[in-house]
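re: the backbone from monday

yeah here it is again, tokenized this time
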């Protein structure tokens, strides 16, 4: 089995397959548990998700407010770079550009701070969601929260 806690189990592999089938989707551990058709217990899901995060297979997104569950997503990234995430639709994108790298270099050289790019996500709104919000504001109506619909 090797190092303690690093062995593969059928349940852990089933959970990994769940995320492989939905590479763009962010879900909570509770949603993983509900979606699995086997007898995988909630505690097993939490442990497997934690191990998959430690191994770099999954990314964990902390809740934005108290009471929300952490979300998890397949981590296709192995190189270091920042990410941007839309607060409305949940889209996640890589931010690999000279300006982002320059920001990291600036933090290191001028502030003595090494940014952990693998843990850094900038939150805002994608172009489509920002345009939708602008249209709603111009029409005097509230934007519809369709995050849940897009996540499925």
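seq for it, each position gets an aa:
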């Amino acid at each position: 089995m090797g190092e303690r806690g690093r062995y593969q189990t059928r349940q852990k592999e089933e959970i990994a397959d769940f995320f492989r089938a939905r590479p763009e989707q962010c879900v909570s551990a509770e949603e993983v548990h509900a979606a699995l058709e086997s007898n995988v217990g909630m505690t097993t899901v939490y442990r497997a998700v934690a191990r998959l995060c430690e191994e770099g297979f999954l990314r964990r997104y902390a809740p934005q407010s108290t009471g929300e569950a952490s979300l998890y997503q397949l981590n296709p990234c192995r190189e270091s770079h920042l990410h941007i995430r839309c607060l409305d639709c949940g889209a996640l994108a890589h931010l690999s550009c000279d300006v982002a790298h320059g920001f990291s270099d600036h933090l290191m050289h001028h502030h003595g701070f090494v940014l952990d790019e693998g843990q850094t996500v900038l939150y805002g709104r994608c172009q489509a969601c920002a345009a939708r919000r602008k249209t709603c504001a111009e029409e005097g109506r509230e934007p519809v929260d369709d995050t849940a619909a897009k996540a499925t």
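The CA atoms of residues 6 and 55 lie 9 Å apart. Residues 1-6, 147-152 have pLDDT under 50 and may be disordered.
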